[in-house]
């Protein structure tokens, strides 16, 4: 029986009788905070690459069972919001984070992407201003004001 050595970050290829099928193994097997931090790096890099605006990251670990981070961003238009979201979903899948749950992609006003560890809200500016979810999740500083 052949011995198979897998290097971290490689894609394994499986050959079947009917043709060649790619089997993607996650690039990282870390758990918990390490996985969430690495996922956050991928998310932020993807958003920067898509020219998302006003990127805000909120650490919600310990505040909510929803995840470890919430990221709120704006796109300039419905089309830009959809493009940012689709690019992010592709990048997450390519980096081995699988498929995220998505809501609102068809309208492009407010797209919610839930990776499990990170919740990403992609808004049009007017919709973001109306809901103002950053204020709801932001922690007060020492003087009691939100930042």
Unreliable stretches covering 5 or more consecutive residues: 1-30, 141-147
Enumerate the strands of the largest sheet in spatial order, edge to edge or round the barrel. Answer: 3-4-7-6-5
Question: Which outline best applies?
Answer: globular
Distance separating the two termini? 60 Å
Question: Tally the helices: what do you get?
Answer: 4
What share of the residues does DSSP label as strand, in percent?
25-35%
Class based on secondary structure composition and strand pairing? alpha+beta
**Average pLDDT level:** 77
Number of E-type strands: 7
What's the SSE pattern?
Answer: EEHEEHEEEHH
**Mind summarizing the main beta sheet?**
5 strands, mixed
Radius of gyration: 18 Å
Helix content: 25-40%
Explain this structure to me?
With 147 residues, the chain is of the alpha+beta class. The protein is built from four helices and seven strands. α1 packs across α2. The termini are far apart. The relative contact order is 0.15. The N terminus and C terminus are likely disordered.
Q: Which structural traits does this protein have?
A:
alpha+beta; 25% strand; disordered N terminus; five-stranded mixed sheet; single chain; 147 residues; disordered C terminus; two-stranded antiparallel ribbon; globular
